[in-house]
Amino acid sequence: MKSIASAPGKIILFGEHFVVHGTKAILAAINKRVTVTSAFTDNNTINVNSELGTLEVPILSSYEEAKSEFRPFIYLANKMINSNQNVNGLEITIDSDIPVGVGLGSSSACCVAAATSISGLFNELSSEEILKISIEAEKTIFPNTSGADCAVCTYGGMIEHPSIEKIDNTFDLNLLIANSMIPHNTKNSVEKVNKFKENDEDRFSQLCDLETKLIDKVIVAMKNNDATTFGLKMSENQKYLEEIQVSNDTLRDMISSLNEISLGSKITGAGDGGCIIALVEDENMDKVPALLGKDKECFSAKIDTKGVVWSVIEE
Ligand code: MEV
User: Fold this and answer.
1) pTM above 0.85, yes or no
2) Which residues pair with 313 in a beta bridge?
């Protein structure tokens, strides 16, 4: 028997970093996916195969000793093996079309797809249970996660966090994603923001209030089919991200080079590299590559509505 699950990557439209400190965020799942296939073996090992490498460890060995990218899989495999008798080994294979380390939710999509695929060998879990164990798995690499990324990878569509309410976008969001090609580390960026907060609690708390008000206005703008306000709020959100110092010259240059054709643009995800998103009207999409330059990757994002999907092949 093979248990196969695939989960979408994500973008954060509004509220990254502030969401770690309790504010709301708006996220969307995108049409790039990771697929995890799990099967029982008789090897007394957990085997993980991915483009990032392969790993073989004895069952029930500690995840803490593995390289960080493998930890969620070992954590999840051990959790399932611990609560189910007569399991001698597991093989887990990961195929992904989500770029790694650029803020598009590669690690959370892996956690959600792996939680669904591995647990699916034993029994079918509810979405709430999948989300809970995928966040536990993500914490093995990133202990302070807000859980927002795993939530949108589980449920798909556009959601508000932490309520996980679905948001219907009434206007056609033409979102451009552009990759700075600078890899980043979410854990380090989140720690940097923690330091900013420690140094200036008052300003950080004002910024959290501003972010909350901004998101409330975005929700009204979406209900009113108001793409102009949506775009302006993206650029306003970028100012807050600049202030907490998760931007850099490359990201700023990318944002300003798109100014003439976008309604708004900002970092998406942890920042310090990774991707920006811009709201661009259809007729201007073909101008983007020339404005950004050849060394940047860019593509238009479609919103994924399905979230995690699961199937089984009996052999
Ligand atoms: C990372 O994609 C988003 C952050 O807000 C961290 C988190 O929400 O856990 C930076």
Assistant:
1) yes
2) 2
